[in-house]
Amino acid sequence: STRKESSAASDVYKRQVLHRANQQRGMIPASNMKTLVMLSVLDALPTHHRFVTTVSSPTPGTIVLRGGGDPYLRSVPDPRHRDHATLQQLAKKTATVLKKQGRTRVRLGYDASLFVGPDWAPTWPEGYRSQVTPIQALMANGGRPLGKDGKPGEGPRSQAPAKDAAGIFVAQLKAQGISVQGAPSPAKACLLYTSDAADDSLR
Fold this sequence. Notes:
By secondary structure, the protein is an alpha/beta fold. About 20% of the residues lie in helices and about 15% in strands.
């Protein structure tokens, strides 16, 4: 093969090299950087940490959808992963609370401020935009379009995932009998209604 490769893997407990191939050759890291990010997150966060998407009402008649960084948030249940939180589930919970308050019309804001810094790596080429969604704290289906089977599929990635997730939420609220006035806009959240399937209470 004419491809340039460089890799090595070790068992740190046995202090044994499991694989090596041109390991002395310096290369620009590719998706293996995800492994380092994953290990850093596992080290920094407690084992019980949950990435939770919430809805708050800072003022009467206004609700805010806040992204908690959940990479597995779906718009509708995923047939392969039915335990993943969904915007559909959150819309049902939110509609129930609003109706108890006598409200069927609201304004919607969305908050993706949990993640700071650029959502697009400056070294990524523009050609990646067809394959990569900007990394925002609020996104549904990983920024992928849904196939007819309800699974995230291939196709152009969302370039405004927080805004698009809010648009999905608008449609799902409408299906629950709640109309949204105007277009969703960026906003700051307070607290809270949650997408966590294990949490069924208004905080």
